[in-house]
User: What shape does this take?
Amino acid sequence: MTPEPVPVFDPTVPPPGLKPRPKNVDISITGRCNLKCGYCFYADEMAALSDLPTERWLVCFQELGELAVQRVTLSGGEVFTRPDLFELIDSVIANRMRYSILTNGTLITEETIEQFQVGKRRSRLDSIQVSIDGSCAEVHNKSRPPNSFDRALRGLRLLKAAGFPVTVRVTINRHNVDDLENVARLLIEDVGLGGFSTNEAEQMGSARCYGQDVVLTEEERRRVMQSLTAVDARYGGRIGATAGPLSRARHFSEIAERVARGETGQPGRGTLCSCGGVFNKMAILHDGTIVPCNLLPTLTMGVVGVNPIQDAWLHHPSINVVRYRRQIPLSALESCQDCAYTGFCAGGCPASVMSKFGQLNVIDPVICYRAYKLTIDN
Assistant: This one.
């Protein structure tokens, strides 16, 4: 069977209906970090880039405010390594935006909590996400530097005790695959969180160099799918996942149920449509480079203060090629043309396939239901 032709489009023209500005912007305000974690996507690709100075970030936030961007997410590196962090936060607020923070939690102290009480820093904060990758130091510190667990947990407890909108992300890797039930017990029962989210270590950044140490094997991934599904059920569906083993388990379970009912697909699937983020947000790296997503650092779109952000958002080919993926039917891909499940598939994260294959218009084999079903049937 000959694959369908891939649609042709002009990458300088945005897809119909695209909003004239991003709603959200992910901003990596620094490449510096006090840790060096085994799976960090930022630790490899970004090491040679220099941080923008304070005044250039202030100009950037003013431009975002003039565009009526609603929210920014501040990450790194580690945000709390920047001595001017709260000056930057105040600028975000002055430009009528809300903000969230991603952090490893190890630098949060009582003094940090006090700093958030100044002005509108607390009221404009949507969330602080802390990374916890084990129920104890023995597990957590295998993929992170020594002594990081106790400091991260202390920071998390300080935020929780002070009533901050704190969340936790658990990155599943080879070191914590057998600790996830204990992690859930720690975070939900001990710390008292309403839940937590999960994803999976990908072979990018430092994990590309040391992937054999952290990236899951297929057998481990299937085992985690079962264990996390059970843990999630035990806690009443309080574990979130938009990627990784739990998301995969939910997606594959839905496909099996639909196939059993005689369905051949579901609405909004059947193309390379998995990433909707590029329709409402974009990212800026710590040296000011504009990119579609901070996981796609090679798809550069200009530099803040040099290239207008709105022009990059609307017309740059690097983001529009990601948007137009969703117009490519899976049946146009040689690997998928004879698959009975293309009507259920969305192709997988473009950053993941870019990292694995160096191109965008392929599917991520990790999310292939046909391949998964072959392994479990045999």
Observations:
- Confidence is low (pLDDT under 50) at residues 206-211.
- Residues 218-234 form the longest helix (17 residues).
- The radius of gyration is 21 Å.
- The beta strands are 24-28, 71-75, 98-103, 125-131, 166-172, 196-200, 239-241, 281-284, 290-291.
